[in-house]
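Record type: ASSEMBLY
Status: queued
Input:
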Amino acid sequence: MSSTPVRVRPPIIELVIVRTKEFVRETEALFWVFGFPLLLALALGFAFRAKAPDKIPIGVLAGPHAQERLAALAKSPVLLPRVYSAEEGHNALRLGKISLLVEGDAQPVYRFDPTRPDARTSRLEADDALQTAAGRRNVFNAGEERVTQQGSRYIDFLMPGLVGMNLMSTGMWGMGFAIVNARMRKLLKRLVATPMRKSHYILSFFLGRMIWLTLEVVLLVAFGWLVFGVRVNGSIALLALLCIIGGYGFSGLGLLLASRVKTIEAISGLMNLVMVPMWICSGVFFSYERFPDAVKPLIRLLPLTALNDALRAVINDAAGFTQIAMPLAVLAAWGIVGFAVGIRIFKWQ
Amino acid sequence: MSDAAVQCRDLRKSFVDVKAVDGLDLTVGRGECFGLLGPNGAGKTTTIEILEGLTVPDSGRVEILGLTWKDSERELRERIGISLQETQLPEKLTVLETLRLFRSFYRDGRDPDELLRELSLDEKRNARYGKLSGGQKQRLAVACALIGNPDMLFLDEPTTGLDPQSRLQLWEVVARFRQTGGTVLLTTHYMEEAQRLCDRIAIIDHGHLIALGTPEELIARLEAPNIIEFASEPALAEDAIRALPFCLGCSKHGDKWQLRVDALADAVPQLLALIERSGAKLVTLSTHEATLEDLFVSLTGRELRDV
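Status: finished
Output:
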């Protein structure tokens, strides 16, 4: 039983390879890391896409002038006219199905509720259409310049938030779930019964995360750009640095949560307890500016807030390093505290 | 520093409400196969995990290969191989990947391919751990213990729950390791396993050592090489049985009486005569040579598998 010289990779490399293989073979995990955020972006992006406002439905009272008025009103780009009998028309107006009813004989009469914003627009648009049809000449023709700016749409706000949320959930689950699972299966205990260095084991999780993190971020950012035209206005290098520090911060937090927990149920509860408040408070789907001023400084100390703020600054506003130094420091601090405390209180068996 | 592979003195370990190990002294010689035998909850696992450096004892001294865990943990980890009770290796990794991973932890070790051939796992090298049978999983666990080319092997219940064929295969692995001069310490609650594999056996119960010796020495202690088990309808009274001249000891298990006797040829006819005289009917009767199981019963009054 002599020891044969065989090609043996260093333990840290072997651990990272093993982690990567395990992850690739976990089909559900792949979906949650890659598929789910893309679906979410797609659904929300289309639901809130910038689109032309709908045409405003209005009514024309049946009578000798009805058809000619209908034709004139139909030419307006913002009105959707229909002919109503007197009773139907008044009912439709009362119920808000239409915002204006055109009545009267030779001289039109506009019946509407001026407290409704749509009603005033339709009053102006209807009058304009009927006057033009009756032969009114405009004194001048004004030009139009329409502005819907790239960078100010909802999807532009949402994409960086989704990148941040994804970095948080994959970072924390990637550490937390795998570690608790290995502890439950007594695999951690088996590993510390070998000469393996404990630091290599923890480090392999972090390095494994970094590989996937790169893919996740590239995929999400490319998706946002190709499907919704969300561009990265700032430096790609700075974005990369930010994602690495973000991944580090959340891995640390994940390690801390998983350091002593014994069951998958317990770690799931703990993860949700930490993550759900951040989904709500840290400006993933809507800005945290709506929260009271008193709690904002606290919200800014949350790692996801720091990451989202910095991601938006780089992706939307082309911010430089100094502008995101503060959130970077917050993220790094979470990582340092998470790893330092997590390793100290870590239970191997 | 001693020349023994394992030496421990006055080992004690309590958990919240039980004394798992209560003043245990053990010495295992180099090259020896030593068995810790006892029922579940006797303190076997706690003892072996203390020796493996995974559990810290409340008090007592432990030396493994002449080294202590406190001063030489890394050195010892390189030199011993361990198979824990109930470890589950990563589900999604293949046999070869798992073994390569464990190999990478050791400075010096064996070729994974060669080891897989030796353990008849060669065909399964690319199968995932989750798809293996119980026996294959257990052999892989032992392969992970052997991959660092250890001087000493610790096996905690290596064949519990395995079918007879898988058990035989594992016994062969242990025997081969011993041929190269390796020391083995194993726990088991199978008497047959202890009798087949071990040079010496320590029987422990409630954290105490209750008997120590070679399997033959221990069985000889019974001073009754044969056992008669019988049941009758109605059952015989204890006084009547104890009054039999050949009876060296008896105990009752359910409906069955167990008698320790010297010569079967004398005892069986006399027993049958007694049953007939008392007007009872014989329901079952069987005899066997005394085993460690019988020793355990005579030492504790309980059967191993009852506890």
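Annotation: Chain B touches chain A at residues 52-54, 74, 77-78, 82, 84, 86-90, 92-93, 97, 100-114, 128, 144, 148-149, 180 (CB under 8 Å).
Annotation: DSSP finds eleven helices and 13 strands in chain B.
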